[in-house]
Amino acid sequence: MASLNSIVLNVLLYFVFLEAIIITSIIASLNSQEYDRIKNLPGQPKSPPISQFSGYITVNEDHGRALFYWFFEAQSESTRKPLLLWLNGGPGCSSIGYGAATEIGPLRVSKNGVGLEYNKHSWYKEANLLFVESPVGVGFSYTNTSSDLSQLNDEFVAEDAYNFLVNWLQRFPQFKNHDFFIAGESYAGHYLPQLAELVYDRNKLPTKYPNVNLKGFIVSMQHFYFKLDHINS
Ligand SMILES: *[C@@H]1O[C@H](CO)[C@@H](O)[C@H](O)[C@H]1NC(C)=O
């Protein structure tokens, strides 16, 4: 009897311990995302309130590469709306300067750059919007290894974007199970399918990689292949 009791006790303790670890790690990530919270930007309209975050996600520790992001929670019911990663193209175009601040984000830079104005057509009405400046060298994204800048092919870019995504979800674990979409335009016609393929392939190796709940990708004004893209223009 005593031994059965002690087994039960051990099992109980084990679960309490496990729970404690899980709760601690959730609290830790909530804390680290709170560091990234933007309370207010200079020139931001007083209303509506906008839940936004920004910061760096390390994508390669050895070389010291980090990508800069700006994230907006969906205007309403953000806990059940999809997560959408937006990439501008270029190569070399800033997703912050274009996608977020002049196209689909809720805050656009106003004429002559004197402030911000609310964009009532923003996609944040339908999705949680994650803008990332990719690859390193674009906007605020950087590398501490200058030679990286001469190695930037599509494969390199997809690998960093994948690591960005996985590490960002680590910091914002409450979005891990949301439907996830990748969207973008122009040269992102190369970035998106390449990133989607990497996610798709790695989702098949669950012991090696975390699952990313990818549902699809959306490309506009795409550059897939120069001759075909310009056939009607
Ligand atoms: C890059 O170098 C700076 C200065 O040493 C350091 O503070 C920063 O953490 C490094 N970035 C990464 C991603 O390792």
TrEMBL record:
<dbReference type="InterPro" id="IPR018202">
    <property type="entry name" value="Ser_caboxypep_ser_AS"/>
</dbReference>
<keyword id="KW-0645">Protease</keyword>
<dbReference type="InterPro" id="IPR001563">
    <property type="entry name" value="Peptidase_S10"/>
</dbReference>
<keyword id="KW-0121">Carboxypeptidase</keyword>
<keyword id="KW-0964">Secreted</keyword>
<dbReference type="GO" id="GO:0005576">
    <property type="term" value="C:extracellular region"/>
</dbReference>
<keyword id="KW-0472">Membrane</keyword>
<dbReference type="InterPro" id="IPR029058">
    <property type="entry name" value="AB_hydrolase_fold"/>
</dbReference>
<comment type="similarity">
    <text>Belongs to the peptidase S10 family.</text>
</comment>
<dbReference type="GO" id="GO:0006508">
    <property type="term" value="P:proteolysis"/>
</dbReference>
<protein>
    <recommendedName>
        <fullName>Carboxypeptidase</fullName>
        <ecNumber>3.4.16.-</ecNumber>
    </recommendedName>
</protein>
<keyword id="KW-0378">Hydrolase</keyword>
<keyword id="KW-1133">Transmembrane helix</keyword>
<dbReference type="Pfam" id="PF00450">
    <property type="entry name" value="Peptidase_S10"/>
</dbReference>
<feature type="transmembrane region" description="Helical">
    <location>
        <begin position="12"/>
        <end position="30"/>
    </location>
</feature>
<dbReference type="GO" id="GO:0005773">
    <property type="term" value="C:vacuole"/>
</dbReference>
<dbReference type="GO" id="GO:0004185">
    <property type="term" value="F:serine-type carboxypeptidase activity"/>
</dbReference>
<keyword id="KW-0812">Transmembrane</keyword>
